[in-house]
Amino acid sequence: MDVQLTAAHWVYLAGILVILATMALRKNIVVPAVVATFLTALTFSGSIVTGLSAIFNASLVAAKELFNIFLIIAMVTAMLGALRQLGADRMMVAPFRRVMRAGTSSFLVLAAVTYVISLFFWPTPAVPLVGAVLIPVAIRAGMSPLSVGMVIAICGQGMALSSDYIIKVAPGISASAAGVEADAVADKAMVLSLIVGGTALLITYLVQKRHWRAPSPDLLVEWEAAADRGIGDTADRGIGDTADRGIGETRGDSSGDGGGSRPPRRPEPAGGPSGGGEQAATATAVLVAPSDPIADPDSAAEKERRGTAKAFAMLVPLAYLAFIVYLMLGKFTEVVPPLQGGDAAAIVGGIAALILFAAAASTDRGGFLETTSDHLVDGLVFAFKAMGCVLPIAGFFFIGNPEFAGPILGISADAAGPAILFDLVTTVQSHLPQNAFITSFGILLIGLVAGLDGSGFSGLPLTGALSGALGPAVDVDPSTLAAIGQMGNIWAGGGVIIAWSSLVAVAGFARVPVLDLARKCFLPVMAGLILSTVFAVLVF
After folding, report:
1. Which pLDDT score, from 0 to 100, does residue 253 have?
2. pLDDT single digits (tens) 75-128
3. What pTM, to 2 d.p., does this model score?
4. CA atoms within 13 A on the CB side of 394
5. Cα–Cα distance between 37 and 410 in angstroms, integer?
6. CA-CA distance, 284 to 302, in Å (whole number)?
7. What are phi and psi of 285, to 5 degrees?
8. Could you tell me the sign of the dihedral formed by the alpha carbons of 20, 24, 30, 31, in that order?
9. Which letter does DSSP use for residue 157 in this model?
10. Distance CA 486, CA 474 (A)
């Protein structure tokens, strides 16, 4: 079917190209997205009033579609703030130190703990948590600092965040843009993320193992001394000599001293998700000098506080483990009804809310109502600062989807909205080879390019929209293409192979140059992405 392209189509296409070029230059794409939204609406309608209102309507439509994502981020962040104030966050991972006695065991434990924490809470809290507690143990067990950083980046910012299977932020954005079910994208993204991560971890193990040494306490002393001498690109920022002493903090996530003696601090944003999508600014670490009096470890109050922290350190993993069991029973049996994507996310948020209330009450019994409110506000502020830039970007790409174009352009609900992006794809596809492999690798490449801004999720509306348009033309499920694009976007921008992303946080705690870490991760990750894309085309 021939499609008649109008000026609005060409303006929209120009907007996409400008956004991609801006990403390639490592600049923020919010302004180009807003300007492109205005020009597209103006050209389509011929009315400056419609063009101006489209700027607002586009973000509003995107907010309606994505607000459940913002809310779950806020709930989980608020819960983590309460656990951090109580001192239970570090206790959750402390037992793993007992089994990290050699290089291989440390490699496996570090990978597993980072993956699980990042899968449930995103890498933002996982990096300072693992960095403060487990990295020094892994170094003492013989692992090289570079291999430690690679494992954390691959398992956290890469494998866990690229699937985002529990919180389902990334699959929700991809699915909304592609016009498919979020669960379909999430299931395929989980499989692909395991292939990419497993491949990258195997290559990392084989390549880095020769650099490991025999376990010795001297390795930890040497590692600390290297940081004190300023070796690496992060020592001068104060990251170097605090990770193993438990007094380091990153913006938005304090590792704490496990004692919870400091008053709660309003967390700052992690920009992006990594995230989500976590900007490199999240990695800026500062030394925090304890200003409170040192608590008497033998006092009754201190013993009670430690007991409460231990109880929550066990309660949180058990609560989410029970949820996973329930989720699996619903998915693979008929014992309980299956949960859809929205229902599962709602339960995660509900569990987080109840744990937040209980932790706040345990920490501040007299004023826990106010404390709980503070944590919720902090969570909402974090969510909007971390994900807010996604709204105008998603709004621009939603104009290309007829399902959302009507409300954005002020078209009545009875009339169908223009299918601008789909028209462009329909026009172009007749001149391209109708090949599933070429299309799939094209979506992967677009995802990688879109991740160049280092924010993690900003390219998902683009890869999702293209997947929905291209999938039927090459006889590939759009959810499969959306999952492929999600892999490229998050493995790049989420903080694994882009040095100006949240990879800086990992490099800071591992005390290695961030450019070296990005270069070392590049080939293992690219090998995994190529393998996963081939698998997706052949199997899905």
Report:
1. 38
2. 888 888 888 888 887 787 677 777 888 899 999 999 998 998 888 877 876 787
3. 0.70
4. 28
5. 13
6. 31
7. -105, 150
8. negative
9. I
10. 19
